[in-house]
Amino acid sequence: MALDIKQDQDVLRFSGELNRDTLMLYSPFKLLNSLSGKVIFDFSALSNVDSAGLAWLIQQLGRARKQKLQVEFNKVPTQLLALAKVSGVTTLLPITD
Fold this sequence. Notes:
By secondary structure, this protein is α/β, with parallel strands linked by helices. 27% of the residues lie in helices and 32% in strands.
């Protein structure tokens, strides 16, 4: 399966798999360059995440902060939450629901 990230105004909708095999399609992640203010990462259609995907998300959060973007994570899959908990990075993730 592939990874697809669609922009719908200030929402980035992730679908498919965010893992070491697919995230290179979005490296560098240029969608952040065209956004300002608040950005929502919607994971409702994300089916799989691995530790490389989690690391990539944390990297994008750092980039977003440098660009003065406020990021929110919505509909975070339990797999991503479990990885974040095991990795000890849950507090870094801006999870809103």
